[in-house]
Amino acid sequence: MPVNKKIFILLLLSFCLQGVFAQVKDPKEPKTKKDSTEIYNKIKDYSKKNKFTQTLHKLFFRSKKPKKKEEPLIIKDSARYDGKIIRNINVITLDPFGHSLSDTTQKPKNWGERMGNRLHLKTKKIAIYNLLLFKRNQAFDSYKVQESERLIRSQRYVTAVRTSYKLAGAASDSVDVTIRVLDSWSTIPRFSISSNQVSVGFKEKDFFGSGQQLEYRFSNRFSDGRNGNDITYTVPNIKNTYISTILHYRIDLDNNYIKSIDIERDFYSPLTKWGGGLYLSESFRKDTLQAPDSTFAFQPFKYTSQDVWAGRAFKVF
Prior knowledge:
Blueprint: H1 3-21, H2 30-46, H3 51-60, E1 85-94, H4 111-119, H5 125-129, H6 142-153, E2 158-168, E3 174-183, E4 187-193, E5 197-204, E6 213-221, E7 227-235, E8 244-251, E9 257-265, E10 274-290, E11 296-312
Parallel strand pairs: 1-3
Antiparallel strand pairs: 2-3, 4-5, 5-6, 6-7, 7-8, 8-9, 9-10, 10-11
């Protein structure tokens, strides 16, 4: 082995040993830190001479990459835009794997992330527009913009959301709003098995990217081969009114069933002034009742139920 390589290896080992024993010394000593930096710089310069020394340097040392300076996407003092006219609303939806809200250049790196994104149906822009509390050609209201961001983030199919705004045009009398949404994986399979029955199903939190939800479960009993079905379809927001509709139908292994519809408008935000709901259901089941002769027999029951409510919010003070 050449003499220079031997010297390099000795310096490398001595520096590593020095780094180990330096932990015992007082970390506030400036001289030790300065000497260690000088030795490291000399080793780094020498390692650039050939491939062998470069390999050894990469083996023992890890260079600290400088952090990439990113432009902030969110402007904290959004109130200074209040009153300006909203010219454009841009919605950007991102697949769940390998993307970042803060770094627009980040892309999926491996096969697993790319395959997961191909299997995922990205949220449609109309589903995000449907959640906004502001529209184009309206005056910018920072509270409504921040509240819209919170409502988007609360959706089950969204992992994160960031909103940015900038002045539009030279006159600076209008503003452009950009909303970046990172999807979450929306399809959840379900499976259970026991000694007497099996059940399979799924839950789709973002049905075909529409923001609507579909849940289905199929059951089978081994002893008699009977089947059961349970399906729920949810429309969380009808045309930006925040009126939700839930359709539900379930029939179990004994042919008992329930079907219902639930139309409701919750107090989804402090800006909500009114709310209400209507629930209708029909149920059928069989149960044992005692007859006058003290015998028990299955009897069918069929009944309906309704529930109606309404509310109004107002400031007390």
